[in-house]
């Protein structure tokens, strides 16, 4: 029982912690969506290749939990109408973007961007994860539902005042995704095309081709992984039993305590969020700028294929899926793993994020 008490306290403290450069507030935003999802949640293309008889409708209003951080300054800056929508990956929550300080290192990108941009951010828990709505039926949590929530949320933030404390509407919204979060943002652009509400996309730890041979079976039904916390969940909700796969194979490039923390506060995601990443291999009609970033030591995508060293080839392969994009950039962070934010190379990655946000915002 002590383990789960500590996990809850860590989540609470990280949610309310305020950095010197940041004022952060928890928020809950209701978002209504009306979408068609495949009847088979194991459909790797999330219904994009299905006929009408293979689809069903999901219409509901879901609560989206997030942590809104804005520069702690009384001066209005030229960046005040720019917002980063931060979307975590599989088994994580919004806490991925602001984990507790560890061994005097601050792994919070939200705090970093407040100080270095300065830029505001809203880190959200995707549908089914963290403190956002978790439908009883896990098959309601599919790419069409979860990505539609992100797109609709972005539209609300651009058109409706006072959704976030102390902030008005935002003219420019940049989607920043990690792993499955990148795939959700990508799916949204496939559906929305040139009508996407995102001014630019920064997609990390996600490629159109999965290096499946390097991935051990680390996922299982959440109620089997941790019956104390998740015994009552639909078996279609999964979690990760071993987070080492998300870090570099070189143990000197990250703190082992970060892996322990990951295991302690691991969350859940519906099986569809795990299998529907096949949509990344489909072409998007999105017209904004796009950047993809991976770590050379990413055990899911790069280890076993030369550490993604062929940047020219990968730029061509990945860029071909964004034919209408204003620009496309592909970057490899040397030495970093799947969790770019959580190893010793994070500061360099954060600087790249801020550079791209500035570039995409036209500032």
UniProtKB/TrEMBL annotation:
Q: Kindly state which keywords UniProt assigns to this record, in alphabetical order.
A: Signal
State a single Pfam family of this protein. Answer: Abhydrolase_6
Domain named AB hydrolase-1 is located at: 85-342
Which interval of the chain is the signal sequence? 1-20
Q: Which InterPro entries does the annotation name?
A: AB_hydrolase_1 (IPR000073), AB_hydrolase_fold (IPR029058)
Q: Which Gene3D superfamilies match?
A: alpha/beta hydrolase
Instruction: List the protein's name.
Output: AB hydrolase-1 domain-containing protein
Protein species of origin: Mycena metata
